[in-house]
Fold this sequence. Notes:
This protein has 23 helices and two strands. It is mainly alpha-helical. The protein has a two-stranded antiparallel sheet.
Amino acid sequence: MSVLKYCFCLFFLQSIMTTLPPLPLTRPKLTSLARQKLPCTPKNLARAQLIKEKDDIDYYLEVNFKGLSKEEVAAYRNSYKKNICVDMLREGYHKSFTELFALMERWDVLREAAKVRSIFWLQKPLEEQPEKLDHFYHYLTRAENAERKEYFEDVYNNLYALACYFNTPEDKWVRNHFYERCFKIAQLIKIDGGKKEAEAHAHMGLLYEEDGQLSEAAEHYEAFHQLTQGRIWKDETGRFLNLLACESLLRTYRLLSDKMLENKEYKQAIRILIKASEIAKEGSDKKMEGEASYYLGLAYLAAGEYETALTVLNTYGKISTDLDDDLSLGRAYEATAKVLQSQGEMKEAIKYLKKVLKIARNNFQNLDIVRASTMLGDIYNEKGYYSKASEYFQQAFDTTRELMNMPLMNETKVHYGIAKAHQLMLTINNCIETADITSLDHLLSWKESRSDIAPDLIIAKRWKQVPINGLMDEQTVVHTYSGILHNYKE
């Protein structure tokens, strides 16, 4: 699975969990009055100026608005954040105030820490974002009121609404806070058969997955999968929760197996990918089943179990053919070619790689063209077919120039240069070895122009002496090349 695909899966999981109908926000009298004087007074004003500003407000109110109460004056004088807090306490929502105050303190700490790390961090202080404060007040107080009545489902819905509202990159820590709160409340809901608990496990799995704690994420996704088995529950977008659980679990298992393969823990990686394959079959999604087979095949390849890898990858190829999915079929052929190359079956590997090239060209997949061409070039270069190697390396290089991918372009340029040098060395040595007028003319012409020399037919014949699987025996290559190099030195 590419980095781009992986990033798309995460975005989709977040988006399907954040579709909630907008609710009208309720505001008490003090807060409503305070909103009329926005924007709030900046924090960076000098104390003397603040005192003067408050005196001016008091004088203005005394002259123009006779009979205002102290509360109404305070609404104009205090910051919007302070009015929100005062309203919570006045209405008796002490838990909401405590939670909001703790979040505001953490908000300031994180903001100051980010300011030290980067001068481009431009997030506003919370007191300058009245809409966010309104959401805090509205949903926290509703959640607290529902909790007093033990309407835990309403508590969950209000906290989840806050998690969805703060599902932005800069506020993700706030979202995670409410995901954790939702998870605790979901354990108390007994009237929905466990649906809210299953959703809460999904949220916690996403939280840990984004944080890189894959083992913890897998535990929550496993609970999510277990709770949704045999259920026809759907999310806000109409997707079955069980299918979503399978996808999330497979994604996490694959990431865990990648780490295991990096540490050469092949048996553990294969074990967890077999489990992933079984879960994919339960999901009744052929594409997902094929993906699981693909990664299991790569794990067998890494472990050196080539025959098993070929069997599993053939299954992936059949599924891709049944789904008429050319791109997946190309991936299956490429992985199969790697297995065959590891087995020394170069002729079969070349056949599969040429199929990959054909599919990639038909679907305009330039990166696949680069990979397949480079693999073909490596095979031909290793076996001494330098002209053929140069041809495929040139294809890879030309494709990277179209992509404007400089690192990849430099890499293919090196491969292409090495193959051309090998090809040129053999031709020049043949001219030296022949030692006739025509060969001498070729050498002098090359010294003047430094351009390519057409390969001599004698070279082509020499390099076809003992073919194995359509290629020359490696020992013959070494022997012949050493003889030419010896003659060149003499």
